[in-house]
Design brief:
Elements: H1 2-97
Amino acid sequence: MEEIVKLIFNYGGTVVLAALFVYMFISDRKELKEEKKNNTKVLSELSTSNNNIAESLNLLKTSIDINTTEYKQHDERAITQFSSIENHLTKIEEKLNR
């Protein structure tokens, strides 16, 4: 019994430090596992968000393309109509000058 008490007095600090080390090591491992789970969840949500943003950008691009096509068609019609008006005005001027 005396030998055990001497061992505890001689090596007690080392045993306590070793026990604290093991406790902290296990505690940190648990926290790291929880942190990994949280990081995985955040990455999954970011991935979903990125997919939604990509889809929104594709819809916006499609909308811009459609608007651009409509503007070009409108410009072409306007040019055709203005040239038709110009032709009519030229004919009217010719008739007035006779």
